[in-house]
């Protein structure tokens, strides 16, 4: 993120510091401190609450709170629940939504975005695209064609991780709602309601305990618009080039990056492989600069000694 946050646990024993990466409108960083015992207690307590109660609690607890979503079923449930909470307290600030447009979404996903904007007219949607480009053609002119195939870590960082980090910085995000659930399988089976991730960002997973059937039932009962691809065997929808329908008995996310060991795009990892590569490359560059500088110092020293001897 663009600014330095207070390091995790820097001022409190066993503590966590979560703040926005840039100043809020008041000029103050929205900092939240949670000790490990407090976090454990909150997760234990919240795990027994209904999602709408978790959302209600989070709204009055965390400043600079946003929802991040690609408009999958769980995100749509969260969106609808938040709209109901807004009717309970219309004077309260609404929760803005962050959508990462990778430029490779299915057309059905983009159509759904328009339906959601029409259905929830008061939604404030922040759309972030890969840096410096607005279209697929511009992305491929800058990064090459099929980057997801030739360098998947680079693709994840460029199309998803960097735009997410830029959104968090631009909007001074302190906490976010996500659509992750334990029943989605892979690395999400032990998901907590509240997580504090690298950099101090607080992630809240209000529907962590729900099954796919529960999410489907809510969507149907509340007539929430959803992605038409779900009627064609898809359960988890990402980019068109890395998403397939799911077979009977497979995990919800089995259609994502099928045939690979990959389960996450990097946004919900501690640090994407490409981000780690960039970090290590920068460390190597700095080390090489230091070596070169020392070599120059040695050369100058030897030259000076030659002059002294000659004199």
Automatic annotation (TrEMBL):
Catalytic activity of the protein: [thioredoxin]-disulfide + sulfite + adenosine 3',5'-bisphosphate + 2 H(+) = [thioredoxin]-dithiol + 3'-phosphoadenylyl sulfate
Pathway assigned in UniProt: Sulfur metabolism; hydrogen sulfide biosynthesis; sulfite from sulfate: step 3/3
Cellular component GO terms held in the UniProt record: cytoplasm
GO MF term set: phosphoadenylyl-sulfate reductase (thioredoxin) activity
Leader sequence segment: none
GO biological processes: cysteine biosynthetic process; methionine biosynthetic process; sulfate assimilation, phosphoadenylyl sulfate reduction by phosphoadenylyl-sulfate reductase (thioredoxin)
The protein's enzyme class: oxidoreductase
Compositionally biased residues, Low complexity: 14-27
Keywords of this entry: Amino-acid biosynthesis, Cysteine biosynthesis, Methionine biosynthesis, NADP, Oxidoreductase
Family: Belongs to the PAPS reductase family. CysH subfamily.
Protein name: phosphoadenylyl-sulfate reductase (thioredoxin)
